[in-house]
């Protein structure tokens, strides 16, 4: 990976490059709105130093370790914990060296760009990381992490983050968010309501989760009405900790709108006898519609992230658990699956549902046509594997002609890799400015319109869509 | 949207731009062949003035009003009639102002380009439409519409239309077409045979439609043979009014080739007891094959437009009816679904079937490989949401390498927005010339070949494919 | 088609063009690694002259004759044999003239480029082929084919082929390969184990094939264990004739991992009573997993080529048999279908499975995410209809950001058209260098990295992946 250069990701043709650069310069310094992600709120509550380079850059980043695994490196050798407590590499420097020795695997990937940007902008390391300079990198990063300027809150400020949303389970006590609020620190770190553990009958420990949901809220979650009331209570509790949105990670986009009596009966059946696969799918689908109805009531923005086939390899899942790089996208239908929910609430003017996809074929065929007509729908940015230069170009080229810019929701970084946040937003800003420069260069947008749109894509759309 | 500029949609690199411009200049002035669309033949029969700017540009254009709806404007406030006769906005100027106030929604969409082109080329309005100049636009357009030069026939001539095909139901009396023919006006406006209402058992009023088909033809549509004979008679009647083609809008591309006794039994079952969803699908599929067989007999070109999931929102459908922007594409299979029809008649040298898609994934995987070997098949241009600059690039880049240019059928505008016809053909000509310039610039086509191909894509292929 | 020019397929922007040219010059002369294809080993065993231009360029090339068929030329008139021995054109010059008269059909297709390259580089014919010069081309090519320099072995050497893999049925006696080995000629022509005829219960003559497999190996293929042992024996026999790989052409990517007792019972059921469609699919799926397990044992690289719907038109299949241009791609699932095999052996460090697709939607959604994490998986190059300039760009742009370069397997020509081999590799080298130049120009790869990657894509990755 080359050092970051000032014109990276801009078109090569000189006129377009100049246009893209001018657009980028107008948005480069805007604050970061990060309305969806997976940073740990504890970082900002406790504000302790990040332990070491391997724990910052390698061990928690599934983009990074999955690539090493694909070429035969064992997860154990990268320090990824085992569920059975079995031995894994404990020496962060050894992990770092393995990571450094495999840099060429990342050529032309977003990870390469994010890492180079972080090394350069955060740690002043402008050379490419190699096996030869691995220790030099390690020592410098490790030393800097020990300095006050590199504590989480200091980095948050340095990164220019205006607001950062984390994601917590519906059962979370939000203690870290409370601690942040009570600390007097001015950084805005808010939570997001993620109820998968209590709406998905196939989630580990579903029955216990439902019981806990009852205990937390004082509602009788043994009944359908009590269960819905408990959700309302938890949503209010999350809003008290800054939440403006909910998030739903489902295998499909299936929604249902059963008569309430049938929904109640389905809930009873599942609670007392467990769920078949079809019942679990139906219940998740029903709950998306219920969540949407609650959003109409309480104004929370709803995010749907469907289509990941989680934990694809049974052996890796048994040994290392969730989120270990073995989540693979699958075909996702939106047109039929969302119809029950949209029939129920799709025309509600006060509702915002932000749709994501891991199936790019849906952009032009389903998502842009849907978002281009339903007032309740907006499209989230390219997600996960598609949060990349080419992914962004494909998204803009396929979505914009049908849905325009104003049915999209700006950028999300969706990351747990804290240092990658400014890098990801920078890639998105550059990629969008390249796209806009192409529109101007080919007479599809005026320069003044492009300047306004660049600002909207970078800042205003995310802020408005998430009501921040 | 910027004012139209002379080099819009051409590549930015100067050599390619020059090539694209030269190609475009060679086809810019060619007559328009419009072999598929939805203009109202009454316009040309009566040749009355278009009522006002809102009825010309907003109320009938689902591309336009769906975008406003997506941002919370009510269909009622745009003057779109209600099925129950409920109140809708009656003031065309108020509708026009709402439309003008939301122009930024159309940025970088084909609608923006079509509208700007129409305003400029038809009405001499070169500024962008804004909230501020909405009344100025309204008054100027309204005044001009009252002038003889802006009557439908005058615009038809000014637009350089050589032939325009409209689309009528199999039950239509074609009175407007007869009136046009008898008027002595030289404009060639022909009809197209669209039998959905009498081949789709799920169409509103199917039984009554079948009875009416019998009454119109004197055939006994209570029998399978009589029903087929009635189709033959109506096809002949349509040919007498200029039709060279039939058109079929089905939810899928499913075809069937049942033994005739089974087809007759299915028809009887449906007529006497109604159709299950599966029987309706089978019957539509059988009728595609029957229509193809009749095309072998009578030489009519067959168009198949599959894959739209119509009337996605039940409430909007109940309130406002069909064609209100809530038709959403869905996944469409061609390889299996067309096999029965192709086994029956796919190798017929005299048959032409033109395939369309709303599922772009089919271009490279299914449609180009099929059209690249079956003599009966040709590919229609990018359709509906994909009739756009990027849509055309994706189509050419994905289709051409497998099917070449000569298994495609030139351009269709497929519009009911009359003023957009020259704008749409202009976008298609420019987009194709950009694509061809890229081929020449990268050594994949010689300049003399590109000139010939540009002419073919603009004019000859449509004329030949539709036998015009 | 224009004459080949030195900068064809390179970007037009001068800086990018210079970069692409520099990269290309660094790999242009590298030897050809051809690890997967369908050349006839008899050519190199007997080293007789190719009979005539029509038999070299037209009759065996389904890319060529399918395009002529699509425009109404009959297979019979192109000399393609009939299964019933019916009359077909016998005059190669008449076939050649028909081919020459339809050259414009190939505009902007890979065939045009391959043909022009062969005419120019192999036969010194630099003009475009036309109806007018058809005889001149015919005579010159025919004369040259009679010269010693144009015998198969001489061309093999002139083309710079380091290794060429052919593909033989599991039942083949490999006599031609033995003859090549015993001839003393130094050209490396190796075989590949293709067991479709003995693993697919729907293959013509399956029962007889199983019996023959038993006879060839001395194993009792009436039992599951004997059947597996027979495969092991044949794989060893193929390895003795140079094979490093197996190849599997299945309608889908379905795999199964039944308990051995169930697999044995399924085999018995199929042998004694035949297979339902579902049982055939299950058995093919089971055998992919068995083949993968044998690859873990014996180190053979496994290739899976799924997704072709073969022999789409029943009449053409009955009249002319297999491989007549009527194989059409279909939707292909990998995520669910490969899961049983991957659960069984996907994490094996010594195993290499190379996946191909005819469904480009799988690149970004399924294949790159799978290959980007499973050590056993690598992605083959764009296949068949997608072995083209645009196909290669789409592949690189969609695959690289998720899987990088090092989970791909270099280029395959997959051809039975011998003279197209250097042409195809040249197109791939140029296309990849264009892609790399774009990465460098937009700051996503350094120039030194690009030089190394260009070499890897051209030479090293194929050699390593196929263990050559």
UniProtKB/TrEMBL annotation, chains A, B, C:
Q: Which GO terms describe its biological process?
A: D-galacturonate catabolic process; D-glucuronate catabolic process
State the UniProt keywords alphabetically: Isomerase
Enumerate the catalysed reactions: aldehydo-D-galacturonate = keto-D-tagaturonate; D-glucuronate = D-fructuronate
Give TM segment ranges. Answer: none
Reported EC number(s) for this entry are 5.3.1.12
Single GO term (MF): glucuronate isomerase activity
Do you know which PANTHER family this protein is assigned to? URONATE ISOMERASE (PTHR30068)
Family according to the record: Belongs to the metallo-dependent hydrolases superfamily. Uronate isomerase family.
Q: What is this protein called?
A: Uronate isomerase
Q: Which organism is it from?
A: Tritonibacter horizontis
Query: Gene that codes for this?
Result: uxaC_1
């Amino acid at each position: 990976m080359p050092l970051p250069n000032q014109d990276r990701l801009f078109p090569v043709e000189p006129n377009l490059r100049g246009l893209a650069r001018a657009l980028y310069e107008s948005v480069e310094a805007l604050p970061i709105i990060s309305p969806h992600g997976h940073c740990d709120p504890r970082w900002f509550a406790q504000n302790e130093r990040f332990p070491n380079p391997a724990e910052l850059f390698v061990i928690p980043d599934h983009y990074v370790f999955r690539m090493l695994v694909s070429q035969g490196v064992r997860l154990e050798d990268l320090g990824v914990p085992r569920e059975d407590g079995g031995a894994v590499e404990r020496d962060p420097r050894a992990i770092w060296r393995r990571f450094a020795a495999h840099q060429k695997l990342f050529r032309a990937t977003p990870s390469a760009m994010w890492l180079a940007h972080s090394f350069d902008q955060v740690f002043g390391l402008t050379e490419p990381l190699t096996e030869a300079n691995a220790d030099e990198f390690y020592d410098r990063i490790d030393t800097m992490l020990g300095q006050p300027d590199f504590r989480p809150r200091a980095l948050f400020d340095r990164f220019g983050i205006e607001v950062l949303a984390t994601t917590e389970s519906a059962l979370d006590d939000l203690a870290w968010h409370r601690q942040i609020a009570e600390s007097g620190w001015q950084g805005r770190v808010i939570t997001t309501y993620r109820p998968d553990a209590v709406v998905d009958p196939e989630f580990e420990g579903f029955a216990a989760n439902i019981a806990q949901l009852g205990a937390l809220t004082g509602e009788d979650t043994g009944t359908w009405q009590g269960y819905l009331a408990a959700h309302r209570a938890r949503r209010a509790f999350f809003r008290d900790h800054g939440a403006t949105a909910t998030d739903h990670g489902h295998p499909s986009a299936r929604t249902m709108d059963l008569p309430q009596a049938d929904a109640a009966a389905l809930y009873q059946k599942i609670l007392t006898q467990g769920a078949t696969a079809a019942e679990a799918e139906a219940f998740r689908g029903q709950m998306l519609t219920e969540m949407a109805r609650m959003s109409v009531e309480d104004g929370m923005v709803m995010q749907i992230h469907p289509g990941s086939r989680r934990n694809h390899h049974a052996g890796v899942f048994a040994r290392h658990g969730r989120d270990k790089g073995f989540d693979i996208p699958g075909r996702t239908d939106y047109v039929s699956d969302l119809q029950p929910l949209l029939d129920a609430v799709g025309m509600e003017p006060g509702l915002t549902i932000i749709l994501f996809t891991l199936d790019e074929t849906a952009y032009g065929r389903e998502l842009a046509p849907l978002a281009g007509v339903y007032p309740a729908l907006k499209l989230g940015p390219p997600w996960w594997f598609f949060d990349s230069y080419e992914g962004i170009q494909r998204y803009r080229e396929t979505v914009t002609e049908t849905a325009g810019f104003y049915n999209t929701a700006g950028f999300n970084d969706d990351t747990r890799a804290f240092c990658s946040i400014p890098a990801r937003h920078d890639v998105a800003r550059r990629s969008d400015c390249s796209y806009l420069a192409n529109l101007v260069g080919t007479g599809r947008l005026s320069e003044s319109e492009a300047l306004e749109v660049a600002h909207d894509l970078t800042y205003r759309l995310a802020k408005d869509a998430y009501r921040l």
